[in-house]
Description:
Number of helices: 2
Shape: flat
Mean pLDDT: 80
Helix content: 10-25%
Largest sheet: 3 strands, antiparallel
Oligomer: single chain
Amino acid sequence: MRAALPLVKLVMRWLAADTDLWTDTTWIVDSTPVECGRSRPTVMRSELAGWAKYGFCRSHSRWFWGLRLHLVCSPAGRAAGRLGVG
């Protein structure tokens, strides 16, 4: 999946440039936690150790260890295809 990241970014840029999203000045951002492990031993041996981090999810009122999936879209609801980590 890491090897495919440049290709995914290229396709996302191509799709964005092909729509009016490229010039849109308003963006809406939301995120949701993607929990990758609960126990400390899992965190220590996970291959996601360099990517995943501890974070607090206010909507669930809890701490989690994992990634945060971000959605960036226009007010019309067209997704811009971005991925945030952290």
